Amino acid sequence: MKKLRVGLLTFLLCLLTLCAGSSVLASSAVSPDGTFNGIRLCGKVRVVEYNPDIRVQVVTSFPDLKVKVVDHFPNEIGEWQFVEYGEDFTVQFVTSFPDIRIKYVTSFPGVD
After folding, report:
1. Residues 58-79: pLDDT tens digits?
2. How far apart are CA 37 and CA 29, in angstroms?
3. Is the pTM of this model over 0.70?
4. What is the C-alpha to C-alpha distance for residues 8 and 54, in angstroms, rounded to an integer?
5. Quick one: 4 exposed, middle or buried, by C-beta within 10 A (0-12, 13-18, 19+)?
6. What are the beta bridge partners of residue 58?
7. Which of 1, 56, 66, 72 has an alpha carbon 20 to 30 Å from 101's alpha carbon atom?
């Protein structure tokens, strides 16, 4: 009986350690330099319904990236210009299971 308790406690401790470690790793999908899977998150963006480069969810708190919509020269991380063609990458707006979460801002775009 005592061996079973020790074994169970060891298993739970290992499980807790794995869960704590994975939450640290999953803190943000966007790297500190402003990229996601090699895509620099600035530039011309086209919204698509299928096969996007990035699945995006718009949130009001705890975003991975703050996005400022601009009309010209989207050169800084977080500056997006929405276009119909000639895009740098494509996005699909979703309500669940996003690749990244964004928040629209009027100033100070980028990664926190």
Report:
1. 999 999 999 999 999 999 999 9
2. 9
3. yes
4. 41
5. exposed
6. 102
7. 72
